[in-house]
Amino acid sequence: MRAVANSSVLISLSVIGQLKILKERFQQGILVPSAVWNEVVTTGKGQPGAEDVACTGWITVENVEDRALVSLLKGDIDEGEAEAITLCKEKNVEVVLLDEKDARRAAHRLGLKVLGTVGLLIWARRVGIVHNLKEHLDKLRSEAKFHLSREVYDEALRAVNEL
Q: Is the model's pTM score more than 0.85?
């Protein structure tokens, strides 16, 4: 299975040392649109995630062709999210990796399957890649400055019987 990733998932997993989850979950690779690559690696040079993402051999940069859809989506979400959603549609990829609520909503409206950082960590806990979800959620909050509501935090822990 493949996925298209937005920057937030790449950066968040990298900051907490769990970028490898993406390789394990999506063994056919991760695609990122050029706007995401530029945000994370080029303009993000020296920032969390930049070097980790740049050094992987399993993240591929793809250019988006449907600029009209990107422009339409940019009315509600940022360019990286718009390009990720568009690339997912263009390449008929199974899932798009997004965290932001508005971007997730836009992807759902287009019929795309969406997975975010917390969902990936739940999967990793269930298959034994990580052994303590609470520890990783706490790291997301403290180290990655990831906004995570108490409701989502508790729901995630319940999903893996840690609450």
A: yes
